[in-house]
């Protein structure tokens, strides 16, 4: 009696190879999209335009603009709060755009550590 050896014995099934190729393509797309996001600039303004910050997609602060009329030596805490709010808003904008773009690449697949 002859023993029957399954197709692709000792190798990967075709569907596994296809999955690996898809994962590699997705990784390339993710890397490309992240590079695009890194080059973008995100602007956030708070206090009716009193404080504006510009942040890169790499989450690096590029610029802060403060209107002179909000600089009150008697109320430094308010200015500090406005700067913090603007920076946090810019960070949220970067995170939201990154999540949106990665969602397009991954098709909504939640990949831990991606964002």
UniProtKB/TrEMBL annotation:
Spell out the InterPro entries in the cross-references.
Answer: YbaB-like_sf, YbaB/EbfC
User: Which UniProt keyword terms apply here?
Assistant: Coiled coil, Cytoplasm, DNA-binding
List each coiled-coil range.
Answer: 16-43
Kindly list the residue ranges recorded as spanning the membrane.
none
**Where is this chain's protein located in or outside the cell?**
Cytoplasm, Nucleoid
Q: Does the keyword DNA-binding apply?
A: yes
Principal cellular location given in the protein's record: cytoplasm
Question: What PANTHER family does the database record attribute to this sequence?
Answer: NUCLEOID-ASSOCIATED PROTEIN YBAB
What family does the Swiss-Prot or TrEMBL record give for this protein?
Belongs to the YbaB/EbfC family.
Annotated NCBIfam families: DNA_YbaB_EbfC
What is its quaternary makeup? Homodimer.
| Entry function | Binds to DNA and alters its conformation. May be involved in regulation of gene expression, nucleoid organization and DNA protection.
This chain belongs to the protein called: Nucleoid-associated protein H9X81_05395
């Amino acid at each position: 009696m002859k023993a029957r050896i399954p197709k692709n014995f000792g190798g990967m099934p075709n569907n596994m190879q296809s999955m690996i190729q898809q994962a590699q393509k997705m990784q390339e797309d993710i890397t490309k999209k992240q590079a695009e996001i890194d080059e973008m600039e995100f602007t956030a303004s708070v206090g009716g335009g009193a404080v504006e910050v510009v942040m890169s997609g790499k989450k690096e602060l590029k610029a802060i603009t403060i209107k002179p009329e909000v600089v009150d030596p008697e109320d430094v805490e308010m200015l500090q709060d406005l700067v913090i709010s603007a920076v946090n808003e810019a960070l949220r904008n970067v995170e939201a755009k990154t999540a949106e773009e990665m969602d397009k690449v991954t098709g909504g697949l939640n990949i831990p550590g991606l964002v």
